[in-house]
Design goal:
The structure holds two protein chains of two kinds. By secondary structure, chain A is mainly alpha-helical. Chain A has one domain. Chain A has six helices and no strands. Among the domains of chain B are: 234 residues, no CATH class; 164 residues, Four Helix Bundle (Hemerythrin (Met), subunit A) (Up-down Bundle), CATH 1.20.120; 36 residues. Chain B contains 31 helices and two strands. In chain B, a hairpin with a 4-residue loop joins strand 1 and strand 2. The longest helix of chain B is centred in the C-terminal third of the chain and has 34 residues. The two termini of chain B are 63 Å apart. Classes of the chains: A mainly alpha, B mainly alpha.
Chain lengths: 140, 758
């Protein structure tokens, strides 16, 4: 699409959208957001870029294939579920680790399998939607 | 032996030897159970599998399953040793070894399973692995076709069997065979007849009874060791095993006796005649297997101690000699390059060990004393004399046995001692791994005849007791049973058999002429398959029009029916809706959505339609925001945006809509459907909101979200914690959908490019 406004605006918009998508992913546990919304936003960033600069340019900027990205995401989500096997809990039971405390309220940092799963969701939605849209735009 | 020694290094490979050792170890393992089982005990290991459906992976070792297990592992180990040498250097030997070993394990599972559903799974596994084995020479069309035929026929029977097993479960309240059999006969049960029909369909297709027999001779397309294994102790005996296994609960009725006797008898006589008619040694053996299966079925019709003992003894001895003979024919083929009975002769000098092994096996098959085959035949004759339809059974058994006697001569006497024809290769003796099987099995046939008490006590009588369901008197297996009717019949058999052997050339020509005039089952099968393909083509043309509008129309019609029919039947149209006073905000939203929908429907520009549809979507998102679901609203907005972008991209490739309404006659039809569907959904929404809302789940999630999952955003917590497995399924679907669409796009692009070049 030959629009100088879009091309110029896209550069800033893409960066903002990507940061915003990760912000949405991370805040999802307490406030509106999460992997689904984050993934959609991230995909939108690259779709805007593809509209402005073409799909080849967008693919080059992405560096990895969107299908592969989605599949790695599915793998991460699966791993997040398998972690509970080590503690003897049922498949996909959320696992939490308290660092600097002994409960969620006192811990400074709480790495957990739930966020890992959400990151997997983010990647799947991001890669899945993007692969579809880029392929369609390739057609045109 | 020079050329053989050169090859010797080649066959000692992991794929060649590991299955042999593993199977041999299993044989030893099962042999350790023999004393316990012979003493009348049973072993029953159980693993819980799907406890909620009451399905357990339970195994049951009694006399019958132990006899089968010993045959499967014992003959299996010998056949695997044989094939390691027979197929040495074959580029796909490892694959073959894997197939054969998997088949062996499936067969073991089949005979050991106690749960009928587990038995069914193993049953289908044997079907599947035998398909791979029969079609091993997959570059050959005939091989593929015959493998598919065996697969379809036995799998179809397997489905009938599954239905029969489920009915069996309904009728008895348990899926464990040991419990079903312990409860005694089912003949009084109202479900008896359907169960019997379905189980017999499964057994008869697997054990190739007429009219389902034709797949078995065709399955000879497999490499010879496979035939030796599948058609001696395993695959085809699966059906016989099932009949024997179900004997305590299903036998004894007129339906059982008549069906088994007639199908078995006809199969036995038909197969013996066909065996005589063949010129290829392997085909001859295939038909004698068919004869054995018919005979076994016929004797399993009875419930007397003699009939069952005869069946079990015959089953045992048949496995031994048939495997030995198949392997010998493989040796002859390997050595001379042909299996034609007319050409082969005088091989005894060049292949003395093969000749001896084949001779021993053939003597057992012909039923000559003191071989075990003789004893089995004697006991069977005693059973035949006492059978319910004794006239028919005796005649069928006599005809089949006499023909077997003649065929034994054709297979084992003539190739080694008869006049020699023009052979493709000079014969030489086979290497030892290939000789081990026939020799051991042939010698066993003689040894078990001489020491018949051993075979009877350790193997055959425990099996008989298991089939009968009670401890039999035993003592029926002996070399000399005195002057009785059975001995007279045996003498008659020998006389008839010898007569047929000396006249067999003429008989063969006559049989060939009769066969040409009879119905051709195989051609019928091909016609059936072609017909099936035509029906599939017709219905594909009918349903798959390739027009998206019609697919969508059909989908929505089905949806409308699915909504309307239950509504009408439940008479739930009694609406008492308390219309709330709408706020201005809500009214504006509704107006926005309605305007968007109308514009979408009425516009002639695709771009306008998409944008208007976007307005509808954004209106819905606003509703979500008003009612406090920001997550859903954000998702809805983003998806709506993406859909508009996607459509806008796609529309660039689509033709313009025709502005003249009369050129779009389907619009009126579509409008009616849209109004009906919209009305139905509205009614349902009103009905749902009219009743009190069940808040139990909502309350739980509100209470547990932070305390148990440490999150305040309930929607997200449900997605990634409480209902993670669902989400996992959904994201898997996202990937599958994306990949599917990608593949479609790529495929159409390639086609488009080709058309562009043309």
């Amino acid at each position: 699409m030959n629009s100088i406004i879009l091309s110029a605006g896209a550069r800033i918009l893409v960066a903002l959208l990507l940061v915003f998508s990760i912000f949405m992913l991370l805040r999802g546990h307490h406030l509106p957001g999460g992997g689904f919304i984050g993934g959609l936003l991230g995909a939108t960033a690259f779709i805007v870029y593809a509209l402005a600069a073409g799909t080849a340019e967008a693919r080059a900027a992405l560096r990895v294939s969107p299908e592969g990205f989605a599949m790695v995401g599915l793998g991460i989500a699966l791993v997040a579920g398998l972690i509970s096997a080590f503690t003897g809990d049922p498949f996909f039971t959320g696992q939490w680790l308290w660092i600097g405390g002994d409960s969620y309220d006192t811990a400074v940092f709480a790495p957990n399998s739930v966020l890992l799963f959400d990151i997997g969701v983010y990647m799947v939605v991001f890669g899945g939607i993007l692969s579809l849209v880029l392929a369609l735009e390739d057609e045109v | 032996m020079g050329d053989v020694a050169d090859n010797d290094a080649g066959w000692i490979t992991f794929a060649g030897l590991a299955p042999v050792l593993a199977t041999g170890a299993l044989f030893v393992l099962f042999a350790t159970y023999v004393p316990e089982i012979a003493a009348g005990g049973t072993v029953r290991p159980v693993w819980e599998w799907i406890p909620s459906l009451n399905i357990a992976l339970s195994f049951h070792i009694d006399g019958l399953s132990l006899m089968f297990a010993l045959l499967i592992t014992g003959i299996g180990a010998l056949v695997m040793l044989y094939s390691a040498r027979y197929l040495a250097g074959h580029p796909q030997f490892a694959r073959f070894a894997l197939y054969l070993f998997s088949f062996m394990l499936s067969m073991l599972g089949l005979v050991l399973a106690d749960n009928v559903l587990a038995l069914f799974v193993f049953w289908e596994l044997t079907t599947f692995t035998s398909y791979l084995l029969i079609g091993f020479s997959h570059t050959d069309y005939k091989s593929r076709r015959n493998a598919l035929q065996a697969l379809l026929l036995t799998a179809a029977g397997g489905l009938a069997l599954l239905a029969g097993f489920i009915l069996l479960g309904f009728a008895t309240g348990t899926y464990e065979l040991s419990e079903i059999n312990a409860a005694g006969t089912l003949s009084e049960n109202p479900l008896y007849t359907p169960i019997l029909v379905l189980v017999l369909l499964g057994a008869f297709t697997k054990s190739a009874q007429v009219p389902f027999h034709f797949w078995l001779p065709n399955a000879m397309a497999a490499p010879t060791p496979v035939s030796a294994y599948l058609h001696s102790a395993t695959m085809v005996k699966g059906g016989v095993y099932l009949l024997a296994r179900m004997h305590p609960s299903l036998s004894g009725t007129d339906a059982w006796i008549w069906t088994l006797t007639i199908f078995g008898g006809v199969t036995a006589v038909f197969a013996s005649l066909m065996a005589l008619r063949q010129t290829d040694l392997k085909q001859t053996l295939a038909y004698t297997t068919l004869m054995a299966l018919g005979t076994l079925t016929m004797f399993l019709a009875g419930s007397s101690g003699y009939a069952i003992t005869g069946a079990m003894a015959f089953l045992f001895v048949h496995s031994l000699y048939k495997a030995a003979l198949f392997l010998s024919v493989g040796l002859i083929d390997h050595s001379t390059g042909t299996r034609e009975a007319g050409v082969l002769g005088g091989l005894a000098g060049a292949m003395p060990v093969t000749a001896a092994a084949a001779g021993l096996a053939a003597l057992s098959m012909a039923g000559i004393p003191p071989f075990l085959g003789f004893i089995a035949k004697e006991v069977a004759y005693s059973g035949a004399v006492g059978a319910s339809l004794w006239g028919f059974v005796v005649l069928a058994a006599l005809a089949a046995n006499a023909l077997m006697f003649a065929v034994a001569g054709i297979v084992a006497l003539k190739p080694f001692f008869g006049p020699q024809g023009q052979l493709p290769r000079a014969p030489h003796e086979g290497p030892w791994p290939m000789l081990a099987g026939p020799v051991i099995l042939g010698v066993l046939g003689l040894a078990f005849g001489l020491f018949s008490g051993l075979a009877a006590f350790w193997v055959i009588e425990p099996a008989t007791n298991a089939v009968l369901g009670y401890a039999d008197t035993g003592g029926r297996i002996k070399l000399w049973a005195g002057f009785n009717a059975a001995l007279g019949l045996s003498v008659l058999t020998f006389a008839l058999g010898a007569l047929i052997y000396f006249r067999h050339a003429g008989l063969r020509a006559r049989l060939a002429r009769i066969e040409d005039r009879g119905p051709d089952f195989d051609a019928g099968w091909d016609r059936l398959m072609a017909g099936l393909a035509r029906v599939a083509e017709w219905q594909t043309r009918l349903i798959q029009t390739g027009v998206l509008r019609e697919y969508l129309f059909a989908t929505f019609v089905v949806l409308a029916l699915a909504l309307a029919v239950p509504l009408a039947f439940r008479g739930a149209l009694d609406l008492h809706v308390a219309w709330p006073e709408p706020s201005l905000r809500e009214m504006v939203l509704v107006a926005l959505i309605a305007a968007g929908a109308l514009l979408t429907a009425l516009t002639t520009s695709r771009i306008t339609a998409i944008a208007a549809l976007g307005v509808v979507g954004i209106g819905v998102a606003l509703i979500f925001i008003i009612y406090g679901a920001p997550d859903v609203a954000i998702t809805q907005l983003l998806v709506e945006m993406l859909v508009v972008v996607l459509f806008a991209v796609a529309v660039l490739r689509m033709p313009y809509l025709d502005p003249e309404p009369e050129k779009r006659p389907f619009r009126r039809r579509d409008a009616v459907l849209a109004v009906v569907l919209g009305g139905l959904v509205s009614v349902i929404m009103l009905l749902v909101t009219a009743g009190p809302i069940d808040r139990r789940l909502t309350d739980f999630f509100e209470a547990a979200s932070y305390t148990e999952a440490y999150g305040r955003n309930i929607v997200n917590v449900i997605l990634v914690d409480f209902r993670t497995l669902d989400t996992f399924g959904e994201i898997a679907v996202v990937i599958i959908a994306a990949l599917g669409a990608l593949a479609l796009l790529r495929a159409t692009r390639r086609r488009g490019d080709e058309e562009g070049e043309r």
